[in-house]
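User: I'm putting together notes for a lab meeting next week and I want to include a structural view of one of the chains we've been expressing. I don't have a solved structure, so I'd like a prediction I can at least talk through. The sequence is below, exactly as it appears in our construct file.
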Amino acid sequence: MNSIALYRKWRPHTFEDIIGQQPIVRSLQNMVMANTHRHAFLFSGPRGTGKTTMARVLARALNCQSDTTRPCGQCLSCQGSQTEQYHDIIEIDAASNTGVDNVRELIERTQFHPEMGRFRIFIIDEVHRFSGNAFDALLKTLEEPPPHVIFILATTEYEKVPLTIKSRCLEFTFQLITLADMTTHLKTIAHREKIRIDPAALTMIAREATGSMRNAISLLDQIALDDRLIDVRRVEDHLGIASRDSIWNLCDTLLNGQTAEGLLIFNQEKDRGISIPHFVRSVLGHLQMLMLSVITGQIAEVYADMDVDLLACLEDQSEKTDAEAIIKIIEPWANLQPSATSIDIELAICHSSKMSFRRTPPQPSIQSPDQTRQTLKPADRKPQTHHSTTDLTLQDIDQRWDDFIDILIQRSPSGDQIMEHFSPSRITRSETADGYILSLTTNDQKLADRFQEKTRKELLSWAFSETFKCPITVNIFYVSRK
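Assistant: Thanks for the context. Below is the predicted structure for the 482-residue chain, given as C-alpha cells.
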C-alpha cells in the first residue's frame, strides 16, 4: 500500500495552518475580509518557506463562496479545488514553460471566465525562469488583466524578476522559519504520526533544515522508517554528519591550542565519510554560539530552545577564552570557501589553535613540592600542609566538598549543578610521593562519557588540587543503577 509523503500529508490547507509567516497571513486575511484584493501578487523567499502553499490557500480563499477569511472547505468551489477537474485555479511551473509561446498560451486562457469560483487564478511558480521575451509577453496582461483574472507569482530568486514585473505586483517577502517554530511543528507531527523521537534529535533535524519547513518534514520522514527510537546519533548517521560530541571536542582543542588532537578528531570524522561542507558549517555554528556566549554572557536568552548539554558545554568553553581570542579563532573558518578540501580544514585547525594558544590566559598549574622548592627563594617557602605526612581520606574529601565547589565554579559557573551527579568512591597515593588519585563515580552514562575528555578531567583535578594544596588526579567511572 502506497503511503503519502509526510510533507504532502501535512501541507497546510488554511491560513491558520501555515507555520512561521504570521505577518503575511494577517495581511492576506484582512485583504480577503475587506474584499480589497489585488490583480497580481509576487511571493519571494527561500525554498520551503511556504510560498506556493500560501498561493494555493489564498486562491481558495478568494474563490470561497462563504463570508470568511479562510477556505470553508464546504462550498462547491472549495470542494472542487481538491479535484483535478477544477479549472479556476491553474498552476504553471515556469521552469518547464520558459518560452514566449508558453506565455501566449497562458494569456489565451485568461479569456475564459471561471466555472465555479469568482476568479480564474494563475499561480506561476519559479517565475524568474521565464525568458526575457516571455516576461515582455506577460507584461501587458499583468498590467491590465481581465477583471476575473488574478496572478500569483512565486520565486526563490527575487533579483532575477524584471523591475517592470515587480512594479505591477503586490509583493510579500517570506522569511526563513525559526528554529523554535519548526521544532514545535515537528513535535506535533511526530506525536500525531506516533514517531518515537528524542527532543534533542528533533531540534537537530530542525536545525539541519536551515529554515525550510518542507526540508524538515522530509528529513523526519526519511529517518522514521521503523519503530526504533530516533536519537541524536541516529540522525547523525542518517545524514552523514559529524557527531555533536566531535564538534564540541574539536572546539575544545582549538581553545586549548591542542593542534594535534584537533587534527586527529577531524581525520576520524573524515574516515566516517562525513560531508566536509557540513563539517565546516557545524564548527562555524558552534563557534558562533560560543562567541555570543563570551561577548553577551546571555547565551541561554539568545537561544531559548537550547538543550542542557549544549548550554553546559558553551558555559564551560566560555571560561577558556575571551572576545579577542574567539574572534581570531573563528576567522580561518569563516574564510573557508564552499569548495574547501581536507587540507584547507587542517590548515584552519592549525591556524585557529595557534591563535588560541597565543591568547588564552595561562591556566593555574600544579607543581610538585620539588619544583616549588626550585623556584622559590628560601624566604618565600611556606611550610607543607599536614597532607604531606598524612594520607588524604574520603572523609577529608567529603568535609571539604563545598570548598572544592567554590573553587570549581570560578572556572565553570555550572560546576555545582554538574557535580551533584558525582560522588567520591576511592582515593589512593599516586606514584608521585605527594600526589593522589581520586576516583569519582556517577550513574549517568552520558555524563561519565563527557568527563572522559582530557580538558574536563584536568579542570576537576585542578580544582581538587587547589582545594587540598597537593597534586590530585581525577578519574571518572560509570556505575550502573541496580
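A couple of points you could mention at the meeting. The chain has 24 helices and eight strands. The chain has four domains: 6-173, 179-239, 244-359, 369-478.

User: Perfect, that's what I needed.
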